[in-house]
Amino acid sequence: MTEIYLIAVDGSDASQRALSYTAERAKAAGAKVVLAHVLEWSPYSFLTQEELAERHARRKQEVARAESTVLGPMQSILSEQGLAAESVVRYGHVTETLCDIAKEVDATQIVIGRMGQSGLTARLFGSVAGSLAQVAPVPCTIVP
Asked: Over the chain, what is the mean pLDDT?
């Protein structure tokens, strides 16, 4: 069975570290790589038709921007190293959506960069990496 590494990316330094870490391992293992970018989104229950149309247009712009500014450059980095990567952009709760994507692509591992939050904010709200490590359907590597 081919290993499939799902990398959660957002364009941050943490996701760059996760990309570098995963690229080395994917080359050594002959693994496939899937880049995933999740746009945080929550539905509103009472929108007019005009508001729905405006929201849909904004979503299309956000997806296009994510593909060009986050995923495109990361795919180029992998390509330069001889690795091909698929990419996925989704809306939703980050942790839940990453778990869904992992199941859909049959990922054997999820890799995410740690943002380094500390203090009260991290204790109150947790982190995506911490939450993902607790609920991921496959092993989760958190890159410092």
From this structure: 87
